[in-house]
Amino acid sequence: MAEQKPVKIMETVLRDAHQSLIATRMPTEMMLPIVEKMDKVGYHAVECWGGATFDASLRFLKEDPWDRLRKLRDGFKNTKLQMLFRGQNILGYRPYADDVVDSFVEKSIANGIDIIRIFDCLNDLRNLQAAVNATNKIKKQEGRGHAQVALSYTLGDAYTMEYWTSMAKKIEEMGADSICIKDMAGLLVPYKASEMIAAMKSATKLPIQLHTHYTSGVASMTYLKAVEAGVDVIDCAISPFALGTSQPATEVMVETFKGTPYDTGYDQNLLAEIADYFRPYRDECLASGLLNPKVMGVDIKTLLYQVPGGMLSNMVSQLKEQNAEDKYYDVLREIPEVRKDLGEPPLVTPSSQIVGTQAVFNVLMGERYKMATKETKAVLRGEYGQTIKPMSQEIIDKVIPGEKRITCRPADLIENEMDKLESEMKEWKQQDEDVLSYALFPQVAVDFFKYRQAQQEKVDMNVADTKNGAYPV
Questions:
Q1: Overall pTM surpassing 0.90 (yes/no)
Q2: Among 3, 51, 224, 422, which residue has the fewest nearby CB atoms (within 10 Å)?
């Protein structure tokens, strides 16, 4: 008998699956009725928070994201809950002071999160340390909280096996509990995954989790080879919200490993009931146009150009607006050049948008960096952190001549801001968590607070002027 090593699965249907397929629009009321069944599966964890869920809840669903978390925590009695956290950017789009990071980690765990997956768009570990420390502090005090550091997977001559193994060692040294390889664009192919998992396993004792997307069509095979190579956990989505730009299907991976040393032991009948629950909602999303069939296929360009799907569609719409669709291939050729100029960062939000937009400008202007976006300038100044390779000195001299560059951890230059944020929004504060909602999305949060107050005071929303935020009582 071969040694039994059951692979564990993290279920993404309550976060990344619907973020990838229907722009994070699944409301809490859709989630709650199935929680009890999901809790019986024996998942390693259920990802249900973080990423874009926070913004979408406040902005589009008129829900309090903290309330969603509390309700899910209440329902999941036996299963760990996981969130995605953008390092020093938390869930927003700018770096925050350490006191905001500390407070957000503390409140996330207090409201029910067990595992915090922390990543940085440049893989600059300095941008992750504050969140790891904050998680470890709570773990020490309360015995709860798990810091998982995610490495954004990418290709390029700087990203050698030596790079990945040395990063794994550093992550262990910084006090993380586990490592995730976060392949947001579906670039990790099967045999490369075998090699990478084996190499990282030899470099660290930490558990390794693999996250990928089905965009390029190879993800299930990649998981198969990764599991054979010893990966501990894989991220999957229940079948109605799997594939396309989402993850491989949970039931397919469970069936694949059945009767092998990697058998998950999950009950397919129970998984079928969970799939049956989500299927009508998926059909509803297709009928309403919320789920676009385009995101459900395979986009092989992802592998050919090593560009994430979202970045490609962004680029196409930018070219369309300028009546320059004939420049598509010129821009595709320019993207790796810009990426090289900027120190070869992984292409993940926000670095993918920054590189893509700059490539479009370079081609349309007929001269490289004749016009640079403010984000490109910020990257060159070091405001996002340190890139794996040095940035092009020639481009620095052209775009930000004579400007001072940041070499320290960017957040070292940001003073504590919790007190200031609280004083700015105190008229709306009903719970400590409201300060954090405001910190991340000031305008969106205030609009939500006004709406919440109107609901509490039983305002007739039919006569409310929601556009201008006027709610007559």
A1: yes
A2: 3
